[in-house]
Design a protein that fits this description.
Elements: H1 2-26, H2 44-60, H3 63-67, E1 80-83, E2 86-89, H4 106-115, H5 130-133, H6 138-150, E3 162-163, H7 173-180, H8 195-207, H9 211-214, E4 231-233, E5 236-238, H10 243-248, H11 253-262, E6 264-265, E7 268-269, H12 275-280, H13 287-297, H14 322-330, H15 332-335, H16 361-369, E8 374-375, E9 381-382, H17 394-409, H18 417-422
Antiparallel strand pairs: 1-2, 2-3, 4-5, 6-7, 8-9
Helix pairs in contact: 2-6, 4-6, 8-13, 11-13, 14-17
Length: about 425
């Protein structure tokens, strides 16, 4: 018995030592390349140009969306991000020395955004998209550091994450990093693709970190190899934005470019989790960068398809269906009896991609909760859409959703009241 106990203790000791060694060797940051500029030797004009570039990098990387405060102060932190394991709050990344990153060097910022490692060796939760930023160019990080350090310091303390056990054990993130953090810090070139395609890939996959919302995740909440194939995040469906997925819902390169530049397209408007992306990021990108992103996202896309009328089935006469009656009574005043919509007021239903999605989650959520009034790029506006969750039963919601899916989505009218009820827990 003592011998067996000794063996077990020995195995535990060896396992612990191995885990500790792995932690030390593989869980820390990788190499830190040298800075691309001598910050202490910059002239006034050079520093101003570097700060301007950093501002653009911050917008392309959509930093403000997660680091804004609860009352809208840029980069002051406090924005809540819901995960299956608890709530994480965006941190203060202003140059406050007490509460922000005022004591960080450019190397410290590189280590954090590329490897997810803090200056004190602590590990960031992967809600910080370092698994995408892992290929961020050192020159872009240097410019971002110069921009952040040029902003006014905000002395606002960070709010601690509210995570369930065992995910509240921050050092354990090191072992997640060992398994799922990408190893390289560059994107391999694809010789058959032009320079603009490579720029688009960098903007989509690295700076824009689109995959952090649009790529399916495994049980460990790590991204799978089904790149950009769609995922549910914070209760919304981030849809499939692969070339085939976009084409199946009728997207063209011109429509996609308009959507990213203005938030408006024939397929609908930016709403739910995408609206802050427009506000803080895509509307500020150069025409060349928008073209590059579209080139990458639509690379190899088949001809746009749109709704499949053959798939649209609803028991009985659609014009006499209960959902049609609900649509005319609740929706047609703004969206039109035939789904034509009204400019700068309400989106058309014809061509709108939300009813086309296989998963009805977003459609149910929009009808249930409504949408605030939105200001888009330029002079475009959309009026507030009220929510009808307090007026419709699950049966009525299912009827309305099914009518919309059949009439304009090319989808079968098979959503049940049970599925409607289930969306509240997703």
């Amino acid at each position: 018995m003592r011998g067996l106990l000794a063996v077990l203790l020995g195995l535990v000791a060896v396992g612990g030592a191995g885990a500790g060694l792995a932690y030390v060797l593989f869980a820390g940051p990788g190499p830190i390349p040298p800075a691309t500029v001598a910050f202490d030797r910059l002239t006034h004009d050079e520093r101003r140009a570097l700060v301007a570039r950093g501002r653009y990098v911050a917008r392309a990387a959509d930093c403000e969306a997660c680091h804004v405060s609860e009352d809208g102060v840029a980069y002051a932190g406090g924005f809540a991000m819901e995960t299956p394991f608890g709530t994480i709050y965006g941190t203060n990344i202003t140059p406050s020395r007490e509460h922000g990153i005022g004591g960080w060097s450019a190397d410290d910022l590189y280590r954090a955004v590329v490897y997810g490692i803090l200056p004190d060796g602590g590990h960031l939760y992967p809600a910080m998209p370092y698994t995408s930023y892992h290929a961020m160019q050192r020159a872009d990080v240097d410019a971002l550091w110069a921009y952040l350090m040029a902003r006014p310091p905000i002395d606002k303390p960070d709010r601690a994450p509210d995570m369930i056990f065992p995910f509240n054990i921050r050092p354990a993130i090191a072992f997640w990093d060992m398994l799922f953090r990408p190893g390289g810090t560059t994107l391999p070139p694809v010789e058959s693709r032009p320079e603009a395609w490579h720029r688009g890939r960098y903007l989509v996959d690295v700076l824009g970190h689109c995959g952090d919302c649009h790529t399916p995740r495994n049980l460990a909440f790590a991204k799978t190899d089904r790149h950009l194939a769609g995922e549910i995040i914070e209760g919304d469906l981030a849809p499939d934005i692969t070339p085939a997925g976009l084409a199946a819902r009728g997207w063209t390169p011109g429509d996609l470019r308009s959507f990213m530049a203005t938030g408006v397209s024939p397929q609908g408007t930016m709403t739910l989790g995408m609206y802050p992306v427009l506000v803080h990021s895509t509307q500020h990108l150069t025409p060349e960068d928008l073209d590059a992103m579209v080139l990458y996202l639509m690379d190899g896309a088949p001809a746009p398809a749109g709704p499949d009328p053959a798939a649209a089935t609803l028991a009985g006469d659609p014009q006499a269906a209960p959902g049609r009656t609900l649509y005319v009574g609740l929706c047609a005043g703004c969206h039109g009896t035939e789904g034509e919509g009204q400019p700068n007021a309400s989106v058309p239903m014809r061509g709108n991609t939300t009813p086309m999605l296989e998963d009805p989650l977003n459609l149910v959520k929009v009808i249930r909760d409504g949408i605030p009034a939105r200001r888009f790029a330029g002079t475009m506006r959309m009026q507030e859409m009220p929510g009808f969750g307090d007026r419709l039963t699950d049966r009525e919601m299912a009827d309305l959703v099914n009518y919309l899916r059949v009439a304009w989505g090319g989808r079968p009218g098979d959503v049940t009241p049970g599925q409607v009820a289930g969306t509240r827990d997703r």
